[in-house]
Amino acid sequence: YDQDLFTGDLVAVKVFQNDKKVANTAFHKELEALRQLRGKKNICQAVGASASPNYSAIAMEMYDCDLFKYVFEEGRTFGEAQVRQLFKKICSGVDQMHKAGVAHLDLKPENILINYESEDIAICDFGLSYISTDNNRNSKLRITP
Q: Which residues are in the Protein kinase domain (predicted)?
């Protein structure tokens, strides 16, 4: 994480090394997906991006941890009502993605962020996502093995 020097807010910074084609592709794919999903509820929002010859970076909203860590490493539990609310939020985020033409392709607890107090969630990590365009609407959809 880092601090936004303009607002003073803490932000999560995802850094991509530009020496590999895969990293460069992931950066551009993630950036494009985040553009498509700007302002969508239950989606981690980008607050800035930067590119240099060696590195590219995306600054995003800061959350306390991911859902995997929250449950399996910190040992937190949810009641039935909480599980229903979290599931509704996750489904809402997926619905927002699909309406925007974005398929995540790597949705897992590690890619769902959560804040401790509010239990707000946000789907993150769009580096493997598929972005639908008019040119590829009829192509075969790729999925994570």
A: 1-145
For residue 73, the 8-state DSSP code is: I
9: left (phi over 0), alpha (psi -120 to 50) or beta: beta
Which residues of the chain, if any, have pLDDT below 50?
A: none
C-alpha 97/C-alpha 75 separation (Å) is: 29
Q: Which domains does the chain have, with CATH numbers?
A: 2-131 (1.10.510.10)
- Local structure of 101: helix, strand or coil: coil
Predicted TM-score (pTM) of the model is 0.84
Tell me the residue type at 39: G
Give SS3 for 108. Answer: coil
